[in-house]
Amino acid sequence: xxxxxxxxxxxxxxxxxxxxxxxxxxxxxxxxxxxxxxxxxxxxxxxxxxxxxxxxxxxxxxxxxxxxxxxxxxxxxxxxxxxxxxxxxxxxxxxxxxxxxxxxxxxxxxxxxxxxxxxxxxxxxxxxxxxxxxxxxxxxxxxxxxxxxxxxxxxxxxxxxxxxxxxxxxxxxxxxxxxxxxxxxxxxxxxxxxxxxxxxxxxxxxxxxxxxxxxxxxxxxxxxxxxxxx
Length: 230
Known about the structure:
The strands form two sheets. A five-stranded mixed β-barrel has the order 1-4-6-9-7. A two-stranded antiparallel sheet has the order 2-3. α2 (83-93) runs antiparallel to α4 (195-213). The protein has five helices and ten strands. It has one domain: Alpha-Beta Complex (Inorganic Pyrophosphatase). By secondary structure, it is an alpha+beta fold.
């Protein structure tokens, strides 16, 4: 059975493109080094977002204001902001009724290189994160550096990152949904945390994913069983 599953898995890889969220692993060295699927780049005047059903990028909305995301932005595959991520947010902030936002774990990746468009994977090294709450939903943003990046690749923890870059990220996420004069602000960043906390958040999101969607390693076996029963 194991040999049949392996052969079927290899055949799928030859015939079909993997779903960016469900069909790609977070990386064999996660959370220390993760795969990241990039949806938008700093020059995008439009916010692209993965269409979860099809696995293709779609236009979410034009950027509302003049500020654009200052880093590469996307998510870590096979992660999910669910009960464990929400519980940590509630514990750290003392807020009640916090829920996960139901999306994969967001990641911002620092690099000196310019990228023309999104829709690609890269290897990133998490160095910290922003504990963001959108409404009553945990919406953490992991901050990472591109592996082997000449300018940022040496950074190990957010404390070594230029303060101005972190401030720009905070400003973007605090303002990208806020209309001028609108109140009250629905997005808040309760704190900025370091690498160790980022690892915990990522590991929790990986467990939340498996709780929500099951064990990815068992999918080929389940498909073969369903085909055989049909």
